[in-house]
């Protein structure tokens, strides 16, 4: 189990903007890493009401359970690696939480016995280092939706904000309000 503070800036992209950034940074979708986010929530959306999210991400034959919680500088993420069998059990309604995540959910007063598997969002992700940040281009599929997103993960807020706004300006991309993937997923389903 480990924790990290995620400071990121996001912007939805049109397909044209996505393709333009792919060209500008000499990226090829053949290089993209496939990741599948499996989401969990209660019927009453208690995680959402706390500003939290719970998922298992499958990526490169590895499964990681993650709880995201609000933090003054971004999101506090608690991660625990789990087996493919744990993922399959969770999908089948037998949710077994890593102890650290279980304790954090209890502290948030989330009724863990009410958690249910809600579905998956598939993302093809391209990443590269850029101005001491991680530049991410995501092409996501969920339900009947396909979308494109720019993310910039930064070591600290002020630097990240400056780099992100410069990126949007340099590539003539309109700033758009952008919901996170789990919000978009739940709105779709």
Automatic annotation (TrEMBL):
Domain of life: Bacteria
Pfam families linked to this entry: CYTH (PF01928)
Segments forming domain CYTH: 4-189
Gene3D superfamilies: Hypothetical Protein Pfu-838710-001
SMART domains for this protein: CYTH
PROSITE patterns xref list: CYTH
Protein name: Uncharacterized protein YjbK
Organism: Salinibacillus kushneri
């Amino acid at each position: 189990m480990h924790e990290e503070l995620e400071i990121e800036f996001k912007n939805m992209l049109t397909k044209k903007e996505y393709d333009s950034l792919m060209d500008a940074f000499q990226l090829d979708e053949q290089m993209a890493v496939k990741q599948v986010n499996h989401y969990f929530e209660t019927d009453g959306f208690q995680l959402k009401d706390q500003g939290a999210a719970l998922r298992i991400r499958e990526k490169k034959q590895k499964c990681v359970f993650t709880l995201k919680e609000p933090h003054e500088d971004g999101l506090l993420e608690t991660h625990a690696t789990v087996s493919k069998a744990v993922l399959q059990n969770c999908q089948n309604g037998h949710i077994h939480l890593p102890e650290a995540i279980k304790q954090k959910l209890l502290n948030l007063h989330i009724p863990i016995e009410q958690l249910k598997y809600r579905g998956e969002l598939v993302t093809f992700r391209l990443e590269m280092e850029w101005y001491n940040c991680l530049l991410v281009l995501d092409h996501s599929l969920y339900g009947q939706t396909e979308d494109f997103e720019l993310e910039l993960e930064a070591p600290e807020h002020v630097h990240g904000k400056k780099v992100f706004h410069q990126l949007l300006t340099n590539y003539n991309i309109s700033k758009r309000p952008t919901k996170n993937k789990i919000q978009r997923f739940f709105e779709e389903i």
